[in-house]
Design goal:
One of its GO terms (molecular function) is DNA binding. With about 220 residues, this protein is of the alpha+beta class. It is built from 8 helices and 11 strands.
Amino acid sequence: MTYTLADLPMFADLDMAVLRGLTARRRSYPAGQVLCTEGDPADQLIVLLDGRVKAARVSAEGREVVLAVEAAPVAFDKTALLVDGPHRATRTAMTPVEVAYLPRPAVLELVATEPSVAARLLRTLAATVRDLDERLIDAAVRDVPSRVATWLVRRCATGGPVPLYGGQAGLGAEIGATRVSVNRALRGFERRGMIEIRAGEVTVLDRRALARLAAVAVG
């Protein structure tokens, strides 16, 4: 599904005439295309309108560390754009993608003149900080199986298989664990009849059992 700028949370209440007046360049790229590189200036707001993107950094040893797998609609590096800083990660298309580029001056003008944009941007940034805080706490006080169980429970709410777009390494990056420890947890769940592991996805068979392990309430 291809989204529009109006589908982005920070632009949700913006008048359509204002949105149409934005000078946005739209581009389509194949899987494997690098959209931005860690350390480069964040002089444009990159909005993902379709597809999925991997955010990664390179460790001191030269190893790629996957930070997250992001799906449309989402805007990248809003904080860097606001403070005139560099991109904090290299983002690479995992699927064919469509993106829109908004010049930094245009975004800053919207934030300064449109209260709804500023308010929604603040809420988005606050949610990002809260999510990071929860992930850090989880990594410090919860074991890997409970973190994997929580991740699965939250993503299988609508039913059907849960895709592992970044593989088990990508899941591990999101919850602060190694691929090996994630694989061990998944295999343990499978032996207990909670899930079924297939190529690139996990099917949850017993969501309530996983929720008990994760201490997450389910409806």
